[in-house]
Every structure is written in structure tokens, then in C-alpha cells.
Records
---
Amino acid sequence: MTIRLLRLLTVSAALLALAVPAAGVAAPGGKPVDRGIVQSVNRSQIVLTALDGSVLSFSVSRSTRVRINGAPASLGGVRPGSVANVVHDRRARAILIEVFGTPAPAPVAVTDRGVVTALGPTAITLRTEGGGALTLTLDGSTRFLFQGLPAKRSLARPGALVTISHATDAPALVVNVLKRAGA
């Protein structure tokens, strides 16, 4: 019953936020505020569709504050489909993004353990403890560690015992060499 009530309150808040005109509203500091539905968001930009159908784009910086349902949050919690108010300056730089709705779930990280059987430029393959094979993609953001400390990629050569943290169906985040090959 509480989930149903929460959904009803979320929908009510969204409809109320959309009922106020998208243009002509100002924040207490005199800064303009635009309202709409989040279409896309990334580290540098948020795009809204206003109630009148116009598309509004705002640049985002490290100084942009984010609030979700009144609580401080990160930009990663903003997801398309949410209702948002964007307080911005005259150059369309977002100062404050206020989002109403359910925040995006954090990606679930998985850690696999095994012995490296192959290491290529874009992938690593393990023989897991259960005897199966697991191949994961490597990209520019993959970090390599040796017993928890930063290390060179070459330590993860075939024969090394490693743990690999990754999100489901995503490139490896961290490859931690627990024991060197041949050691």
C-alpha cells in the first residue's frame, strides 16, 4: 500500500510541477527557472522538454547543485522522464537542478575471481573458480591494481590470479591482481 501511495504522490508532484508555466518564472535570487521533463542528462548538459513542447538545453558544471525530492543528490541520480526545475543564468548554465520523482538506481557491481587465460587490448578472459570461462571488455577507464595498489596492465598476464569488478554487461571497472603469474 505504501508503494502505491508513493507513486500517487510522485505523479501528483509531477503534474503540479507541469501545471506551472515553463517560462517567465524566476527563482528568489532573480535567476530564471525553466520546468519540464528530462529528456537526457550527462556530465555536461541536461535537456528538458517544456509543457509547450519546446526543447530546453542547459550546460552543467561541477558547481551545479542537484536536489532530488528536496534532498541533495548527484547528477547520476537524474534520469530521463523525471520532472525537473532548472535554475540557470542568462547563458543557460544550470545553477540548480531540482528533480521530482524516483532517482535512478545505482549500477550493481559484480566481482568475479579467477586465473587469467588471455589478455588482449580490449578484453580479458578468466578461468573462474567454478571451472567456467569469463571474458570481459576492457576500456580506457579500466583500472589495474596489484594487491589493491595502482599497477601496470602487464601484471594481469595469463596465469595471474585476479578479481575483476564490473557492472552487469559493462566493461571491467577494476582488475586487481592478487597473485602474479608464476609466483
---
Amino acid sequence: MTSGFPDGADDGTVHADVAGDSGAGDATVEDEAIGRAPVSDEAIEDVPVDDEAEPEADTEELAGPGVRACLEAILLVADEPVPEVLLAQVLERPRGEIDAALRALAAEYTADGRGFDLREIAGGWRFYTREDCAPLVERFVRDGQEVRLTQAALETLAVIAYRQPVSRARVSAVRGVNCDGVIRTLVLRGLVEDSGTDQETGAILYRTTGYFLERLGMASLDELPDLAPFLPENIEDIEDNERTRA
């Protein structure tokens, strides 16, 4: 029996139509059942896939100010020199890295001619106004209004600085006058502090503080100038007599 089509064409065409109708019908029925439109393969291929979204989120969580910025922020609010070891603990960084960053900042401020600089003073680091700007700063803080140490206080402070730890009696012996009131003033100013007691006499001993070094701009007491030429020749005899009376 002749169909009027080439051999195989009839079966192939019929099968192709059936397959096409069946597939389209199934997809349409399923999509209508769940209330959605059929999605073509081309639409699926066009959906962007952001493989870097996860790493970017992690990067944002880890992002933050650098070591230099953190050091500047801390030192800006510090009211006394901050030791390197403390900065390293707070920033959770190696001490060598903190030291290098501090010195780099200090060099940068000096090279830029800033109105302030970063100094290593009294075992720590702190911001200070540059020496060239001192007259303007003094004018701003109303120069002459601040309370200055008297001559007696300066002399007493010098004796304690060079003879520390030292008792009140020995300071009075060196100066030739009673220094109890002056020493109390120096303690209230934070320049002198209690350093224990003398094992022989039980007298309270005094020493200078870190604030004393800071005010003088020194890193340690080793930077004090030699005072021997200015001391009385019989200073040892005076101290021995005072110790005996005590």
C-alpha cells in the first residue's frame, strides 16, 4: 500500500510530531499545575552565577583600619606615653611590627613638617606639639595662667631625682631646710611617689615618677646631666649625721 511519502518519511514525521506534542504538553500541564510559566533552556543559560559573592563577604568582614591608623587613633587619646608591648597586645600584632610602624610614623611626621611629632618618652610613645610651634601653643593655653613650681620645689625635686630613693630627712639635710610640705606638693603634682621604706630607719623613701620623665622629655634617668659639681663637698657627712639623728 502506497502512502505518497518517501520511505521512512511518514514514520519519522509522525514520531517527531508526537514526541514534540507530548513533551510540550507535559511541560505545559506541569507548569500550569504549579502556577508558573515554562522556562526555556536559553533562559536558564542566561542566569548569572556569582561565584565570587562568598569571598567578597569574607573580605568585608576582615576589612578594617590598618596598623598605622590604629596606632594614631590610640595615641591620639592617650594622656601618657603608651608602651610598645601594650600597643602590640591591643592590636594583636608582633611587637617588632608595632615598633617599625611607630618609627615610620615619627619619621613621616618629621619629613612632612607637621605641627606635632611622635616621640618615644619615658618607656612609651605619645604625640607632642613640635618645638617650633611652642610659642603659639603657649599663647593658646594662656601662658602665665598656669601654676609653676617654686624655687624650693625645683630644688627639692632635683635632690630627689639625683639621690632617689631618698627620705624626707635626707632631702632636708641637703637643702638645709625642712622639705615636708614641698615633698607633699610634689606628690600631689604627680612628680614624686612613695618608693617603700628605708630598712635601717623605717623612713618613707621617695622617687620620681614617669610623669617627671615625660615633663622633662627624657626616656630614662640616665639622661639627667651630671650634678656632682653642684653638690656640697661634705654631702656624705651631712647624710651620715642625718641618718644618725633619725
---
Amino acid sequence: MESDEKIALVQTDSQMTLQSLQNKKKLTNLIEQIRTKVIEMEQHERRVEFRRIKARPGHRGSEMADQKAKEAAKNKNIEECYIKIPKRVVMSELKEQSVKQWQREWVETTKGQITKAFFPQIEDRLKLRLNTTPNYTSTVTGHGNIKSYLCKYKTIDNPMCPCKKVTKQGNTLHWTAHC
């Protein structure tokens, strides 16, 4: 019995490509182009099957794909198209640039010395998951209900720590490291 069904068999050695095609949340430009082509073919009564093959030298299709990829990589006339960069790549690069800029400004400013003592590197600070309560913020910034801060603004007369030591930088670092 003969089948009238027309099947297009697509073989790939890329497990990642096959997984991306199955994951409906993957919306990269190339994956979307493949999905669109599959839909077009199905509208013309063709079925598309994807199969994974092992990458190995001597396989005609694999060799041809490798050759085309090398030619494309060497081609200087291919126009760059930035609208095809995945959003996650753009967001990642923007975040990286922002952190670098923030670090430069952090190093250059003369303010926030107590906070800088706790967090000299912005990138390291961003990796921490902190529960920023008012008491935590007061401790890390040296502002708030801290004796040295209150004395500075003449709310109290004596900045002495309960352990009877007066510190020059305020007692935030003293509390956390010595008291």
C-alpha cells in the first residue's frame, strides 16, 4: 500500500536545536524561522520529521553543513543584523555594562565609606541575597540609630560604644567586627 503523505526528514547532530524546537518558550530568531517553515510545509500537506544523528566525519549531510558554516563564517559580505540578537543576550550585556559603570562610580566617590568597607565590589554585593531591614541598612550605611551618627548630628553627647571604646570611623564597623 502506497502512502500519499510527503515527509521532509531533517537530520541534525544538534541536540540543543531539537530541544529548542520542542520548547515553546524558546523564541530565538532562528528557531522561529524553522517553526514558520514547518507550518508552511504542513499547510502544503507535507509532514516534517526531525531526527538526531551522531556527528561524525564522512556523513554527507553533516560534511555539507560544516562546509556551509565555515563559508558563512569567512564571508565578509554578510550584513550584520542586530535585531536578531536574542533579548536575553542584550539584557545580559546591558547588565554587565551597568555593573562596570556602577563599580567605576563606586570607586571614584568619596561618599559611603562605611558601606564600601562592607561591599568594596558591586558585583560581589549583587550576588548576595540580603534581607534589608531598617536595622541592617543603619548598620551598613552608618546612618540611623547609631551612636556615632547621633553624636555627629548632636542628638547625643557621647559616641562611646557600650564596650567603652570610641572609634574614629563611627561604631558600625566596631560593632560588627569587635564588639
---
Amino acid sequence: MPVLAPPRDFERHALRPRHRPLVRAVAGAMFAHEDGPSPARLDAFVDEVDAFLSFASTTLRFGLLVMLELVRFAPVLVAYRFATFVRLSHHDRVRVLERMERSRLTPVVLVFAAYKTILSLLFFEHPDEIAATGYSPARRRHLRALPLARPAATSPAAPPTAEAAE
């Protein structure tokens, strides 16, 4: 009987060092509000995104990283600026993201939608950020939206099938 080696303890990183400032810049432009997010929160958020993407399959990770490279050069495509996304000012980053969202080029809109979805899900999962939106987990209003169905005391007999009639 072969002796199995213990599982290796490793940590996979999906984001390369050049992607980390890009994800931070995109998040900073997407989620900026008067109180934040703080630089420490953005740094932690990049780690969260990296951990999230690292669980994806090799093919999906490759596709997401290619799309991230498209975001890096989006200013050339949508704002006609010869600069990478990270080198733009905050105002210009926001403007580039807005133009990506309204672009006539379908691949550009799809890239924006993919990252907007992933980043929004991860960002607003954090308790401080969801609290900043005014959401309180103590709210129970959603339970009043639809009444809960009650099980019937006796189930009605099933209607006869065509086979039984023959």
C-alpha cells in the first residue's frame, strides 16, 4: 500500500504584481465616496479579489486576467488618452469607467460588467461598507413582502393520467 504524502500547504495568487495596483485603482474609482474607502481598505480589498480569483479554474483565471489587461489599456480605447489606467487621475479613472459602461464596443462593455459584478459583490460583502450604504442586518422588512405558503392539510388526489384512462 503506497504511503500518501500530506497535502501541501500553499497559497495560490491569481493577480500578478502588475495587476494589484490596477485592481486597487479600479476599486478606488468605482467605490469612492466622501468617507472612503480608506487606503488600508483598498489594500485589503485587493487581497480579497486575489483570493476570490485564485479559486477559479485555470481557463477562467486566464480570461479574467486578459480582461484586466484590457482595463489597463482602456483609456486608449475609450478616452483616446495614451496612458494606462493606473497613471490617470482619479477623475479621469471615473470618466474612463463611465465610458467603458456606455461603449459601443461590446467586448469593452462585457469586460466592465464582469469586473463591476465581481468587485461589487466582494466590496459590499464587507460589514463596514454595507453599513455605509444604510443597510442594517436587523431589518426584517423582506419577510413581510410575501406571505409564507402553508402546507395543505391533505393533498388533493392527483388527476388521472392518460394511461390510466385507457
